[in-house]
């Protein structure tokens, strides 16, 4: 098990805490790697400091309180190092979401992930139904006509649209 944990941590890039670093994306990637290697919260929390450098390491050194879970650490970490998108005007991001339409030569894949990124920037906790409404509303007309009510979530809509 120790070898798997070492491989997991070797796979995670260091986080420096600069204005170019995106803490949300970094944590998302770390979680995917941790889950792939079945790294539990205790191991995540005891070793995460080795992946922090510069300003991020200074913050970690000054804030080494006992975090009960990875999620508590993550929330505290993301507050300390807000993702660059979160510093944007939320009204501007909302407007971008509302105006986002699938381009005539844009694949469903590219449209889906571009819209998903905007939704996560605006509200990381946005419900699946709200994302679905935004996704369907921006699809090209011919695709929107094919999508039916049975497509109850964004992944189903994405999968169905990709098959067309």
TrEMBL record:
Source taxon at top rank: Eukaryota
What is the protein name stated in its UniProt record?
Retrotransposon gag domain-containing protein
Q: Which organism is it from?
A: Rotaria magnacalcarata
């Amino acid at each position: 098990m120790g070898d798997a944990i070492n491989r997991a941590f070797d796979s995670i890039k260091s986080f420096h805490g600069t204005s170019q670093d995106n803490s949300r994306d970094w944590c998302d990637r770390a979680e995917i790697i941790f889950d792939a290697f079945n790294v539990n919260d205790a191991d995540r929390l005891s070793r995460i400091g080795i992946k922090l450098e510069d300003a991020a390491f200074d913050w970690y050194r000054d804030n080494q309180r006992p975090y009960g879970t990875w999620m508590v650490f993550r929330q505290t970490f993301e507050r300390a190092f807000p993702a660059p998108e979160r510093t944007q005007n939320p009204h501007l991001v909302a407007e971008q979401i509302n105006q986002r339409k699938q381009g005539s030569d844009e694949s469903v894949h590219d449209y889906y992930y571009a819209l998903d990124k905007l939704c996560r920037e605006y509200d990381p906790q946005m419900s699946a139904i709200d994302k679905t409404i935004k996704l369907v509303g921006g699809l090209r007309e011919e695709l929107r006509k094919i999508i039916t009510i049975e497509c109850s979530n964004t992944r189903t809509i994405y999968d169905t649209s990709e098959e067309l």
